[in-house]
Amino acid sequence: MEIQNARETDFYKIIELDKKMIGSDHRKEEIVQAIKEERCLIMYQEDKIAAFLIYHTHFFDCCFISLIMVDPAHQRKGLASSLLAHMSKISPTNKLFSSTNESNESMKKTFIKNQFKKSGFVDNLDEGDPEIIYFKECY
């Protein structure tokens, strides 16, 4: 599967996947803005979005992957790793960060597999489930 920048025509398919995963479309504005600013990467499987990633550079002027979504039908096939590897190559800053909940064992393993290191944590976002920050140096 090829990784490409999302286009405006991909918006509804991205929202469909996001809503499927979280049960809400409350991130519509964030997603449309990321598409407009070319900060949303997608992977297609046939005519459906199999995975997408959104990033920004508002995390202490460093690149931060704020969202990675993989359709359940395509999980455990390396799509998140492919997106992380691609982001490591195209990151607009030398420092790349992301995060996941402490309870998300799958994503924690994916970060470690892709040479991200734990960089800290944030309490009080999700009750009883700290957010772990991950870091990778990009060249």
From TrEMBL:
CDD domains: NAT_SF (cd04301). InterPro entries: Acyl_CoA_acyltransferase, GNAT_dom. It comes from the Bacteria. PROSITE patterns: GNAT. Residues 1-139 form the N-acetyltransferase domain. It holds the Pfam family Acetyltransf_1. Gene3D superfamilies: 3.40.630.30. Coiled coil: none annotated. This is Ribosomal protein S18 acetylase RimI-like enzyme.
